[in-house]
Amino acid sequence: MARAVNGGRGVDDRGLQRFPDRPERRLALTFDAFDAHHHTLWLRYAHTQVGSRAAAEAVVDALCARLLDDWPHVLVQESVPQYAWAILKEEVARWLGEHDLEPVLVDTAAFLAAIRKLLLYEMRDQFAVLQGEIGLYAAISRLPERQYDVVVLRYVLRIPDEVVAEYMGIEVATVRSHVRHARRRLARDLDVRETKTEE
Asked: What pLDDT score does 130 carry?
């Protein structure tokens, strides 16, 4: 991944910034550890929004460059994962804007299997089930931003509530509240009967 050269910092043969003195080296190590812990989830989320692995990698590269360029400032934030999440969302929006696209939810069998756990409902026939799945994409995209993020993180990416709460800077109870509200709204928008499911 390419990194911007900043001040006296150079770039090594892996494309990572070199930090010549010990305090800066420690900063680089903390960034590397943070990135290693979150990078896969960032990529998976970006992929659900921009539709391809290459585009997701471009988005996450831009996120990492921004975080690394201002890493000392990032470290003093109240929640570093929440701050990084906000930057990730900015980079997704920027990429989509530059390509004149709307967010997409990747259309895969895995997505459909995961999202069915959000709304389990009884349908009269297979045609109605198919219509519900097609309409589900549009209905999810119309959710308020926080409900949308919770649905994608929790059901599509299968992230535990505690991690969702950390990323979004909210309480676990609020995550569950967003799920309840999203389920009700989706049931209403899709004109289906919501059933009681395990949250």
From this structure: 43
